[in-house]
Amino acid sequence: MIELDKSQLVEPESNQHFKFISIPSDLTLSITERRKSSQNYLDDDEEDVKKQCEVINQQNEKLSKIQDSFECIEYTTEPGIINNVMLSISNTTKFSFLNKIDSFNQSVVEKLPPNCNNQNLYQMTNSSLITGQLTFQSRGLRENLMQKLTNLRYRFNDGDLIEYMAYPKVSFGDSSAFDKTAFLFNSKYNSKKSFNSSFKSIIWVSYRNNFPQLTRNISIGSKNYLQPSLNDKNQIEQKFLTSDCGWGCMIRCQQMMLANALVRLDSSYHKQFSMNNDEILELFLDIPEKYFSIHQITEEGKISMDKQPGDWYGVNSITQVIKNIFDQKSTLRPDCPQVFKKISFMVFQEGAIFMNEIKQELLLYLDEYNRAKTEELNYNKKQKFQQHSKTDQHKKFMEKRKLSSQFEMIDDNLDDVIVQEEDSFQLVGIESTSQSNTLSLNEQFSNKSDEKSLYTHDSDYPKAALVVITMRLGLNKIEEEYFDTILECFSLPQCVGILGGKPSFALYFVGHQDKQLIFLDPHYVQDSLKTKQDLQNDDLRQTYYPSGQAKKIKMDGLDPCIGVGFLIRNSEDLRTFEEAFSKTGKLSKIATLYQDRPKDQCLSRKLDEINFSSDYIDHSLL
Amino acid sequence: MSKTRDDFNFQFKDEIAFERRAIESEKIRLKYDGRIPVIIEKSSTDQVLCDLEQTKFLIPGDFTFQQFQMVIRKRLQLPKTHSLYIFFHNNKLHANEKSLSQIYSECKDHDGFLYCKYASENFTG
Fold first, then answer.
1. A413 backbone dihedrals φ, ψ, rounded to 5°
2. B110 is in which domain, residue-wise?
3. Where does the record place the Phosphatidylserine amidated glycine lipid attachment (chain B) (predicted)?
């Protein structure tokens, strides 16, 4: 084995960065030791194995710390840290993982001189040997390293390299009585085979590289919302990103939720919605033209959330961005893309659900759908209805839409909002009566535009709704009290997964086993697909489906901010959803259901009347 | 990585001795009947929100939790699309319509103040 010259490791200067950024200088050492342990494990007898396991447990903590710090290398400019990272890579590849790590590392390793030092590595990475011909042709050394480390970590987590470090697998073995069943969404599985086939059909979106570049303008970004580590003095004004490695994981998780919701929509008996999985995947290709590509999402993020490409998103901010994309694209014009005709996207933040807003959204299209149906009927009966101008309807519809979207954008002035809200309600009422006047033949259709029709509509709604509820279930971690309720979410057939993760590590949860959540991890860099034709290629297409075995994670280390998605397709879905979040429902602990957004006219008055601060400043203790 | 309850520290508590705080809260409760003395500080882990200028509030006891949230929202000038979460000492969620006096009886500190931390969402990358 190669002796590691410890003097080569440079201690990162303190104070210059936040503490979690620095790569511990003993990274290589611990990995080496680990490797030794695992080798011995195979050879030695049982008592030694126990000892080895103890050693490994001790190291686990250290290594998890190291793993956490991988995320931040992108933003590190300090040479000491980069040196350490490069040494780490060179050593890890030399020691152990050679045959498992992809061609990039292999060719690096082959070309490394026997006793390579930092200088060599720098030269190596900058030379054409590496930049020209290898898997990762991205721009800088740092991006390269970042991507390598990310994939290395993924493999650690996956258990591909060393099993002890991995997250527990979803298993159906007889080792534990609890292991016998697992849930994916609301389906229960008893055998590995059936579980795996379902698991592998879930769409997995991961980091990609080499996509058309995104421009990050740091000077524009509001400092408030930036990751603090990005504000260091070394930053450059403009940066071009061709990979989302290190910052896009929340975006990827949201893409996963959306993609899988679309698949669900398709596989249900939603006949008008004819999109196969390939067409769905196409929406997520990493090119600027696609509606849900990382380009469009970050573009919208710039506008609505003041985030530049490269900034981190949270559960709520990403859902707000997606909602805006939907709001802009969704019209009833014939050129409206198919996907926006068939599904709408709604966000409720802070765990407060407003049922009437969901109903309004669903009604809007049901109404239109019914009218179209009526029109069709009438067309056959009376020629004059042919004149019933479609464009007129669209105009009316757009007006309605405009109005209904107005009460999303509530301003500080609460009274205003209420007026608008009432207006839009009235407008719906007026219109439906005027409809019934003109189309008296089919009164039952025009009557349908009230709330009840949502519950009596016997087939799927013409437009489904994907509802994401974002919440925070604790200050720094998810409170234990809510664990069971989170698992309960999956008992609803409407649930399309949960957005969440560990701190700085977003994951998409799709099921659970033994009180642990089964997740899909986007932290793996793959080459981006850019054309429809790429999806025809089976191998390339397969990069959108999970490759390894399903893993699960304990809930006590998770970030408290989560977003739960529900797909509402028909009256049954609506009823189940409403019931689950009602006061006595099984999910009432994590979110509360209200009929209307509060109309607190009294609240605003009260606020003005009471001047808290002056009251208290007089009696201030300080 | 994530600290739990240790994080529920308040500058207010560090600066003023318990006895003084207890006396003061007593005084306030007597003088302002029906008002809840609330100390609110930003969670140390939050990266989004700014600090409140005023961390001490006297809130009418019949205010709902939601109204209290609105007060803080206004103070922070938080856009509608951003989330605000307020946690009291047990880190539990509270229903929006719960009154502050009810929360006070559940979560008040020994010194007679109601302490809470506010935070927006975490960025998970």
1. -75, 105
2. 11-119
3. 125
pLDDT in tens, A301-350: 988 888 888 888 999 999 999 999 998 887 766 777 888 888 899 999 99
Neighbours of A156 (CB within 10 A): 23
Q: How many Cβ atoms sit within 10 Å of the Cβ of residue A438?
A: 12
Q: pLDDT of B40-57, one tens digit each?
A: 999 888 877 888 888 888
Residue A230, min C-alpha distance to chain B (Å): 12
| CATH number of B59's domain | 3.10.20.90
Gap from A573 CA to chain B (nearest CA, Å): 25
pLDDT exceeds cutoff 50 at A447: no
Strand partners, A352: A592
Angstrom CA distances, A352 to A13, A349, A598, stand at 45, 6, 11
ipTM value for the complex: 0.90
> Running DSSP on this structure, what letter comes out for residue A135?
S
Choose among A470, A476, A589: nearest Cβ to B83: A470
- Give domain status of residue B2, yes or no: no
Q: Are A69 and A23 in contact (CB under 8 A)?
A: yes
Q: Which pLDDT does position A503 carry in this prediction?
A: 83
Among candidates A305, A146, A303, A139, which has minimal Cα distance to A213?
Answer: A139
Which chain A residues in 382-411 lie under 8 Å from chain B, judged by CB atoms? 409-410
CB-closest option in B7, B59, B80 to A475: B7
Whether B124 is in a domain gets the answer no
Interface A-B, measured as beta-carbon pairs within 8 A, has a size of 154
Q: Which residue on chain B is closest to A611 by alpha carbon?
A: B58
Query: 0.80 cut: is pTM over it?
Result: no
Task: Verify whether the Cβ–Cβ distance A314 to B121 is below 8 Å.
Answer: yes
